Amino acid sequence: MAKAPKNDNPQNYPALGRWMMWVDKPGSVKKMTWVLGIFCVLTILGNLTYSNKGHYSAENILGFYAFYGFVAFTLIIFVAKALRTLIMRPEDYYGKKSIDTEEWPEAELVRKDHNDD
Amino acid sequence: MMIDPFPPAFIFFIGAGLLLCMPKGNLRALIGIIVPIITALVIWELPNGIGSELEFAGLALEMMRVDKLSVIFGLVFCLAAFLGNLYAWHVKDTIQQVAALGYAGSAIGAVFAGDFITLFIYWEGTAIASVFLIWARRTEGAFYTGMRYLVIQIASGVILLAGVVLLYRETGSITFEKMELGTLATWLIFLSFGIKCAFPLLHNWLQDSYPAATITGTVILSAFTTKLAVYALARGFPGTELLIYIGAVMTVFPVFLAEIENDLRRVLAYSLNNQLGFMVVGVGIGTEMSLNGTASHAFAHILYKALLFMSVGAVLFRTGTSKASELGGLYRTMPLTAIFCLVGAASISAFPLFSGFVTKSLILDASAENHYMIVWGMLVFASAGVLSHSGIKIPFFTFFAHDSGKRPAEAPTHMLWAMGITAALCILVGVFPEPLYALLPYKVDYHAYTTYHVVGQLQLLLFALLAFVFLMRTGIHPPEVRAINLDTDVLYRRFLPTLITRLGNIISGVWMLGTWFAKGKADKFVKTLHNSHGPEGRMARVWPTGAMVLWIAIILSATLIVNFI
Questions:
Q1: pTM for the whole thing?
Q2: pLDDT, tens digit, 9 for 90 and up, residues B70-110
Q3: Which of B260, B388, B410 comes nearest A84 by C-beta?
Q4: Torsion angles phi and psi, residue B320, rounded to 5
Q5: A94 touches chain B (CB under 8 A)
Q6: How many Cβ atoms from other residues are within 10 Å of residue B503's Cβ?
Q7: Is a pLDDT exceeding 90 seen at residue B49?
Q8: Quick check: B290 and B238 in contact, CB under 8 A?
Q9: What is the least distance, in Å, from the CA of A96 to any CA of chain B?
Q10: What pLDDT shows up at residue A3?
Q11: With an 8 Å Cβ cutoff, is B369 touching chain A?
Q12: Residue B154 burial (CB < 10 Å; 0-12/13-18/19+)?
């Protein structure tokens, strides 16, 4: 967590930002997860309102897309993690001929801290 | 029908010339956004047909071929140029401003090209103009990256030209129309389009170069080159079955690489690759529905991809980094940028009511209707993959996740406007797809918002989201770390140079050994000769001076005789 700057004061954040800080309140993640869960159940219920609309028979199984989505996402994460052990390299792997270790040229940026206003 | 319209691309070139005459400041930025508006109006009024014919070296060039396919690409390119230049309002760098106009103009010229020579000229035009958006970063790394980009882009053009020459010899025509793969000529043209379209294994120039461009440069780059290639494929190779499989692979493989990439602009470049895959599948299927899908998806994609690059760019503009490992929790002080990014993320993930949903479904349904079950399965898999890297990773690790302690100020007003308009368009297209459908090359008889579609898509996305929550809470989801990942570019950036250096070392070693050996022998021979015939040599002792005079006389007389004969 935070290495927030010393002059940081949430009261100075934009109103929208303050309002969005709800997501970091204790218990909010739990609430959001519940809402997500409820929506997931709703989509399964919605699935009951029609039948045999898909092009393939598998599509007509209740919750086919739910299963596919969950499994596909999990598989992607596991394969990606395994891939990391194979192809991950330090940032300076390509040396000077790459942008990966370069600092951004300041002329391109207008760095501005919110609390500096 | 013969028409003679003013080629819209020239409006961009005139604009670029005009811009050079202006003093640096808002007037220049204004030209950057007025030119696309005027051009869009011109394109809107263009009558269908072929026009602006030009005689060049005995060949009839058709500078303008206007039909619905070229018009929709022309219009979306104007829109992208408008939004990109609005986003870049603060840029005072002449090179970037001129390059942006020249680049967009070349891309627009290319989509209206009726023949291959005109296409080739604009094709190379996009390559040359766009590289300045990378070099404009003005660092050593950007210079080398730009060089790699330029070499590959120019190579694509040269291969195109080679194909066109062969095609002309075979058919006697340079008209750019539908082709069948089979001859060397068509394969070369196909390969050239494939390089620009970032086909698997030819893709890496994209992930290498886009993160290297300037903040605004990447937004502009993301719109044109690859979509021009998609247009060229749709024009030249619709219904080529090979494209279905190429496209399907394109949708799947970048998903894994995007997931573990740390630089968010490179994540977006991988995601761009994945989205192109959907369009390529649409071209490959080649039915009216699938080609409509390709054109509409290109339109929607240009918008939401630009929006995502804009939001990450805004963060970079304020913090100096676009690396996921360095960011997090920025929603506090950049809430509008965060919301626009979420709109882009929802659009690319194809949530109902957002643009990706109404366009991607066309391609997915076309693949299912034409019984490409495995391809369809891959596309659905890739749709869950899009959610993982573009839908979740980009907004989550930038604006939410752990608090990085950074408190950057909100993006400047012009950037907020550019992002706001783009976000509004993403939602408008999603909610009211009909105006976009009306622009498509073929008549659309399709309803994206059926219960089946909406529920199926929501199931896929929400359960994938559930998987994300599960993997985060169990700590299985990989953390963001400062590192890079190898891709095919390792071949020409590490292996090939290493191989050449090693080969060079071996050759020079053998050479040195050989010369050392020969030199040793020669030295020894000379030394021996010196010992025996030198001034102090044993043989020299018996040499009378007269012998020398005699020999000179013999040589002289031999020369005289040879001369006189």
A1: 0.91
A2: 999 999 999 999 999 999 999 999 999 999 999 999 999 99
A3: B260
A4: 85, 10
A5: yes
A6: 10
A7: no
A8: no
A9: 6
A10: 66
A11: yes
A12: middle
Give the burial class of B128: count Cβ atoms within 10 A of its Cβ; 0-12 exposed, 13-18 middle, 19 or more buried: middle
Q: Do B384 and A68 touch (CB under 8 A)?
A: yes
Mutate to test the interface with B, among A6, A73, A86, A88 (most CBs of B within 10 A): A73
C-alpha span between B325 and A54 (Å, rounded) = 41
In B474-495, where does DSSP find H-type helix? Answer: 489-490
Rounded to the nearest 5°, which phi and psi values hold at A68?
Answer: -60, -45
3-class DSSP assignment, residue B510? helix
CA distance B224 to B196: 10
For residues B524-534, one letter each, b for 16 or more C-beta atoms within 10 angstroms of the residue's C-beta and e for the rest, the string is eeeeeeeeeee
Chain B residue with minimum CA distance to A33: B469
pLDDT for the residue A54: 79
- Chains A and B form CB pairs within 8 A to the count of 253
> What's residue A117's pLDDT?
62
**ipTM of the modeled complex:** 0.95
Q: Report how far apart, in Å, the C-alpha atoms of A37 and of each of A30, A43, A59, B83, B470 are.
A: 10, 10, 22, 38, 11
User: Which of A 22-51 lie inside 8 A of B, CB atoms?
Assistant: 23-24, 33, 36-37, 39-40, 43-44, 46-47, 49-50
Instruction: Give the Å distances, CA to CA, from B285 to B103, B106, B289, B292, B363.
Output: 30, 28, 9, 11, 9
Residue percentage of chain B with pLDDT more than 70: 98
Q: How far apart are CA B528 and CA B524, in angstroms?
A: 6
Answer whether B407 sits within 8 Å of A72, measured CB to CB. no
pLDDT, tens digit (0-9, with 9 covering 90-100), for B162-205: 999 999 999 999 999 999 999 999 999 999 999 999 999 999 99
The stretch B30-48 carries a mean pLDDT of: 94
Q: Given a cut of 70, is residue A1 above it in pLDDT?
A: no
Q: Would the CA dihedral through B83, B84, B85, B87 be positive or negative?
A: positive
B482 lies within 8 A of chain A by CB = yes
For residues A12 and B387, what is the distance between their CA atoms, to the nearest angstrom? Answer: 33
What ranges do the domains of chain A cover?
27-90
Q: How far apart are the first and last CA of chain A?
A: 24
| Beta-bridge mates of residue B485 | A88
**Chain A interface includes B182 (CB < 8 A):** no
